[in-house]
Amino acid sequence: MIRNLQELYQYRALLWALSMRELRARYRASVLGFLWTFLNPTLSMAVYGLVFGVLMENPPPRYPFYLFCGLLPWIFFSSSILGGTTSVSDRKDLLTKVRFPAQVLPAYVVLTNLINFVLSLPLLFVLGLAFQDVPSWHLVFIVPLLALQTLFTLAITYLLSALNVAFRDLQHIMANVMQLAFFLTPVLWDVRTLKGIERFGVAVSAEELQRIVVLANPMAALMTAWRDVFFTHRIPDWEPLAVVAGLTLVVLWLSTAVFERRREEFAELV
Asked: I need a labelling partner for 141 at 20 to 30 A (CA). Which of 122, 131, 134, 262 fits?
């Protein structure tokens, strides 16, 4: 794991060049160009806000702003996972070159979406001010949250990109998994509004259910933390974030081990 991260740092110039090329190619020949960085999440927020803000029973106050606080980090995560899954299998042109560092491919996809996310943050501040929500000192938690989500995303991307080279069905499976995960993760809804349940003689209180959801879903913990920083202006709960950090280290170690083991086969399989 450490060696893989060291190699990424060693090839940082290549990593940055690939990310910049991807960003330029993404909006090439587009009339609005770079403005789509802001328009895409804004249009998604408008659609979900209109539908769920009307249909949802007792939606949170300032629901468009609430929604945007979760939608931006989710777009960063989901775009990285879906793009990263095929990042190795789709780049035969690079992998067949002599000594090309394959570990750069999943990383540059994550970096590209990270840049997009960071550049979209000003829009979050503007929307907050529009709802008379002034940023607080809790913004200091942006950097550690961003680092944690980036490493968690990178860990999963490495694993999926290595497996997808041999099992191409994985990329189609992940498209459906991410769609399901979107609705299971508190992006459109608030985990703190979950009520207790009682089924088959087993009763779970609201507090217990909320705790289970946050601890069982790493992205639920991250979504809640992002909203704590931008929306509710309080210190994020450290316990679920510590679980995510521990899980990130485990998955990063496992994914880099799988990636290194299969790397020699990439050029032949793609």
From this structure: 131
Plot region of 132 (φ>0 → left; ψ -120 to 50 → alpha; else → beta): left
**pLDDT tens-place string over residues 8-67:** 778 788 888 888 887 777 766 555 556 666 666 777 777 776 666 666 666 667 888 888
The two structure tokens encoding residue 188: 């459109």
Q: Rounded to an integer, what is the distance from CA 91 to the centroid of its chain?
A: 22
Give the β-pairing of 202-204 and 197-199. Answer: antiparallel
pTM of the model: 0.86
CB 101 within 8 Å of CB 108: no
- C-alpha span between 153 and 230 (Å, rounded): 21
